[in-house]
Design brief:
Blueprint: H1 3-21, H2 26-39, H3 45-48, H4 55-70, H5 74-86, H6 91-108, H7 111-122, H8 133-147, H9 159-167, H10 181-200, H11 225-243, H12 245-248, H13 250-266, H14 272-279, H15 282-300, H16 302-314, H17 320-335, H18 340-358, H19 362-372, H20 384-392, H21 397-422
Helix pairs in contact: 1-2, 1-15, 1-18, 2-15, 4-9, 4-11, 4-13, 4-15, 5-6, 6-7, 6-8, 7-8, 8-10, 8-20, 9-15, 10-19, 10-21, 11-13, 16-18, 17-18, 17-19, 17-21, 18-19, 19-21
């Protein structure tokens, strides 16, 4: 074992500890690794910071800004108006409406923003009714968790690129996710999970929300019709570009979000300060840094070593079903005790390395990890949405398990079935 390989494994161990403990923002942890790679001569300066200018970062960063702008349009207010009409209707329509609205918002904005918007409506519900704010809040948070970025629009369009950044240094372009791959892997768990939530929401304990933990959530100031038209136009152009990637080429497709963002800046739809805040967010730094970590794993042979080690644990010639079950169960357990984004970042290169070592379908194993990383509803430590729902709703994790454990079991089964249909492990 070479000195460079040992140092790389030590840096990886540091990253694992940081991802598990979340003592530092993920982006900061990833960039520390980039600096260490240069200090110890693992990578040269240009390669160590190439993640800041690679195609994935240049696509994801502006797309985050454009998706956030879409969340400021009247689309959100129109959805809330529909929900207000449903409040006086039957309970089934109310629960179904809450679920569908959450699915839509989960493609347009982050978890905290989505649940904050839904709180505007949930706080008007009756504490003593079957549809109390606390019960419906956990329903919303659960669906938000399993639906986030599953449909390739808005924030959902950035998810495949984000995942690619975690392992792209280990594989060739043929093993990277296309824009619809995450959707295909996650659609069956989303459907099954939503049906379960709509039918079994009564298993969630009833109660009142803790208004002391609810920040002053207000409607965003309305934007002009002109600005809305620009935002919708840019968004449609970007989505069209993604749909015609094969015809336009990946270079053109990846730069379209940047072009769209520049249009919004030039025509004063978005201000420079708000754009810069999103472009320098922790997500962007993590995407840039993690792509370099995977490059270092490949360059030093650490990725091959990790993959072979996991393969030895799985045993000789493991079946595709067994591989998908092992990675799905491992990531589901992990994500409920650390964070979903941390689980994805940590397990993606391990999944890719294992797949390469065993001659498996890289996309299949990576997608198994990344979709199951969003089954983070059992514990409040799993994701920001779960944290809000447990805290604001005064929920007890143990009492909620009669709702969450059957749900997670159904999600895992549906994911394993979907993966083996759309992405056979040895396909």
């Amino acid at each position: 074992m070479s000195t460079q390989l040992i140092i790389t494994l030590c840096i990886l161990a540091f990253l694992v500890v940081m991802l598990l403990s979340h003592k530092l923002p993920y982006g900061v942890s990833a960039m520390i690794c980039c600096v260490l790679f240069v200090f110890f001569g693992i990578l040269d300066l240009k390669t160590a910071f190439s993640g800041l200018s690679n195609s994935t970062t240049l696509m994801v960063a502006p797309m985050i800004v454009v998706a956030s702008a879409l969340g400021k349009t009247s689309l959100i207010r129109r959805l809330r108006a529909v929900m207000n009409k449903l409040q006086g209707k039957s309970g089934f329509l109310l629960v179904l409406g809450l679920s569908l609205m959450t699915i839509v918002l989960s493609q347009l904005m982050g978890q905290i923003a989505c649940i904050s918007v839904m709180l505007l409506f949930l706080q008007t519900l009756d504490d003593s009714s079957e549809y109390s704010p606390a019960r419906m809040l956990f329903l919303v948070a659960t669906i938000n968790c399993i639906a986030t970025s599953k449909i390739p629009v808005g924030m959902g369009a950035t998810m495949p690129g984000t995942i690619n950044s975690y392992y792209q240094g280990l594989v060739g372009p043929e093993d990277l996710l296309a824009i619809t791959d995450y959707f295909k892997a996650g659609i069956l768990p989303l459907i099954v999970g939503t049906i379960y939530c709509v039918l079994m929401y009564r298993l969630i304990p009833n109660g009142a929300i803790d208004n002391g933990q609810v920040k002053d959530v207000k409607d965003a100031a309305p934007i002009s019709k002109r600005d809305e038209m620009f935002i919708f136009g840019v968004f449609i152009a970007i989505m069209a570009g993604f749909m015609f990637t094969n015809q336009l080429g990946s270079d053109i497709t990846n730069v379209i979000p940047s072009a769209g963002l520049l249009v919004l800046i030039v025509f004063n739809v978005l201000s420079i300060p708000e754009v810069m805040k999103s472009l320098t967010s922790d997500m962007v730094w993590m995407v840039a840094g993690m792509s370099v970590v995977s490059t270092a794993l490949s360059a030093t042979g650490a990725g091959e070593l990790i993959g072979q080690t996991v393969l030895n644990i799985l045993g000789g010639n493991p079946s595709g079903l067994f591989v998908s079950i092992v990675f799905c169960v491992a990531c589901t357990i992990m994500t409920n005790f650390m964070s979903n984004m941390g689980t994805m970042a940590l397990m993606s290169p391990i999944a890719a390395s294992t797949a390469l070592a065993g001659g498996m379908n890289v996309k299949a194993v990576v997608l198994t990890c990344c979709v199951s990383a969003w089954f983070a509803v059992v514990m409040p430590t799993g994701c920001s949405g779960a944290m809000m729902a447990f805290g604001i709703g005064n929920h007890n994790a143990f009492k909620l398990m009669k709702f969450t454990l059957p749900l997670v079991l159904l999600l895992m089964i549906s994911l394993i079935i979907g993966i083996n249909i759309f992405f056979p492990i040895y396909g």
